[in-house]
């Protein structure tokens, strides 16, 4: 009898530890950038600024392409990321230290600082082996030169890491079900933009690329992703990869989970 009771208890504990993965998918709109292939793009006579927000927590960074025959200087000390009316500097006066005689492992992290909706991107370095050497200090520059007909990518900030809860959004939709809420530019919970300053010759130009979250959808992982066979040049190798069914450069997502003990409806 004791063995049966213990077995039942173990089964109950195991069922409580079953974890189901969900995604909260954010769709954005903008009047200043337009869809173009695998990116959303702003373009003027001098430059082409491209975005692809699609990533975990959203990538607010951009690719800056110089269309001219002269060097363009991105003025980072006069460029800002702004989210829900809070501004953050692209130029942060940082110093990076490199050493040729230190073995280390560097990993990119997000969220080492949580400021409202903002999550800063950073780097953690784990030293594996070292000896007594002097490192090389690399000072962050205020201005980045972009040569003619080339591009440089600026990626510093995520958009949102926190699941948004709402009485109109089912927290854990059932199988083959989604829960969606739409927003206007006035009612949106997240509004963000990049204020970019660049210099061409003696002329200073300012660009503002703004976005707002127009729709939030909660969906179970098994309904959000599908399996596709690995292929290259129409050759398939038999393996499969999980891909999102509805990815887009104007969207991003946050991952969250549910256990059997979680009874929240919204």
UniProtKB/TrEMBL annotation:
Domain of life according to the entry: Bacteria
Residues making up the signal peptide according to the UniProt record: 1-20
Keywords, in A-Z order: Signal
Cited PROSITE patterns: PROKAR_LIPOPROTEIN
Protein's name in the database: Lipoprotein
Organism annotation: Flavobacterium rivulicola
